[in-house]
Specification:
Strand order of the largest sheet: 11-12-13-14-16-17-18-20-21-22
Radius of gyration: 39 Å
Structural class: mainly beta
Number of helices: 3
Distance between the termini: 55 Å
Shape: elongated
CATH class of the largest domain: Mainly Beta
Length: 443
């Protein structure tokens, strides 16, 4: 090994002593001395038997007579192989040389770069640095050369943390959903999912179950109504009967709980070492429940006697207020949605042991018949029930490896599933337990 190293140093020293540009076999052409490094393949079971590496060399050319002749052909040769380079057998893969037209030649020197493809055979030699030289075809031993140093192309060991991108992954997330409005409330968000990128070739699958207790007030509205209430429930609706004409104001605050069962087959595209794109189809079975708390205040009440025209109006037999001026009650509203759409997932690996998941989905929703209990809400609410509607979903989260099988997850879920209501958002922070951690829990 020491003798081999000494020969290499002597070879480099002599080569640089002779690095004065001179003419090669092609008139008016000279190679610019230089050094490049490359890798040669190491023999492995099932590995490649050879490889082609492109070496960039520089040549200069000039006009040495008043008139240039025909095109000048540039070709190369390999010389000065180290002892181990013979087994690698580097050969030039340029079938024909490069022709430079005569009119390109000028009185001054011009320099150009040429990519020279070198084919190298795989070998079992992995300890030495091997070398060879590239010269213009027909050059002598003292003419300028470009030295190529070769190292074995061994696998690189990595000490990086867990790579969570484009690998099979199972999520069991328990998180707190934060509300940043005046109430500063916290609710629950749970997510169980399976991410399988290698289902079949480039086809993968992302599927899961998600429950969100939206902590934000999904709907906050105020409405005013006129109502007629019988003073005595058994009074006849007839001319002369006394009743209460009420002018009321109602505040509606609706909380939203959603169960999502989603299925997303995707194709995988690797855009770079840190970015992958997964366009996908989307189907989602969505179970929805809205709970509306209503505060109703009486602004004015008058005692009236029915006229002939008043008999045809609607009358309530129950006075919500009694002796009070305000009343509160709750109404539940539930329905099922089928969401069909297309979207795309972007996976980013910003640093070791981390993953950023970004998803955009859009499509149509089919809402099944509603089930409602309690007070009837104004007709402007949920006017698109039992119809096709539009929806969109944006899901973003950062997943960072902590210790063992635990990951911290910081995310945001934004969705609008009906065109007649506002979008719902859920910022959350939680802990994900990996598959190995789940196995330990059930033992």
């Amino acid at each position: 090994m020491k003798l081999h190293h000494t020969k290499l140093c002597f070879f480099l020293f002599v080569s640089f002593l002779t690095c004065i540009p001179r003419l090669g076999s092609a008139q008016n052409i000279a190679l610019v001395p230089g050094i490049s490094t490359t890798k040669f393949p190491v023999s492995r079971a099932g590995g490649p038997t050879d490889t082609i590496q492109c070496i960039v060399v520089k040549v200069e050319y000039w006009l040495s007579s008043p008139a240039a002749g025909g095109p000048v052909n540039i070709a190369f040769q390999i010389v000065n192989l180290s002892p181990g380079a013979g087994a690698i057998s580097p050969t030039i893969s340029m079938v024909a040389g490069l022709n430079i037209p005569g009119f390109n030649f000028r009185d001054k020197h011009d320099t150009m770069e040429i990519r020279v493809p070198i084919r190298m055979q795989s070998t079992t030699i992995v300890n030495n640095i091997e070398y060879f030289s590239i010269q213009l075809n027909g050059s002598s031993a003292g003419d300028p050369s470009h030295i190529v140093l070769m190292q074995a192309n061994l696998p690189i060991t990595s000490s990086q943390g867990k790579d969570t991108s484009m690998k099979k992954e199972y999520m069991f997330l328990n998180a707190a959903n934060f509300d940043f409005d005046a109430s500063n409330s916290i609710s629950y968000l749970g997510h169980i999912s399976a991410f399988v990128p290698d289902l079949y070739g480039r086809l993968g699958l992302n599927a899961g179950i998600m429950k969100i207790n939206f902590s934000n007030d999904s709907i906050q509205t105020t409405g005013r109504q006129m109502s007629n209430v019988l003073i005595k429930p058994l009074d006849p609706i007839a001319e002369g009967t006394k009743y209460l004409r009420q002018f009321n104001e109602s505040d509606y605050v609706t909380k939203y709980v959603m169960w999502s069962f989603y299925f997303q087959p995707f194709l995988k595209f690797k855009l770079s070492d840190k970015l992958e794109m997964l366009p996908h189809l989307h189907y989602e079975l969505q179970l929805n429940k809205w709970t509306t708390d209503v505060t109703r205040r009486n602004i004015q009440t008058d005692t009236m006697a029915m006229s002939a025209e008043d008999v045809n109006q609607a009358y309530s037999v129950i006075n919500d207020f009694g002796s009070a001026t305000s009343v509160k009650f709750r109404s539940n509203y539930s329905w099922v949605s089928h969401n069909f759409g297309v979207g795309s997932i972007f996976l980013v690996k910003p640093w070791s042991g981390s993953k950023i998941f970004v998803q955009f989905v859009g499509g149509i929703s089919l809402h099944e018949k509603k089930v409602q209990s309690g007070k009837i809400l104004p007709g402007s609410f949920f006017r698109n029930a039992d119809k096709l509607d539009l929806f969109y979903l944006t899901r973003i989260y950062l997943q960072q490896e902590l210790v063992g099988n635990l990951d911290a997850v910081l995310g945001l879920n934004v969705q609008r599933f009906r065109t007649d209501v506002v979008a719902n958002y859920a910022p959350y922070l939680g802990i994900n337990i990996g598959l190995d951690g789940l196995k330990k829990l059930v033992k």
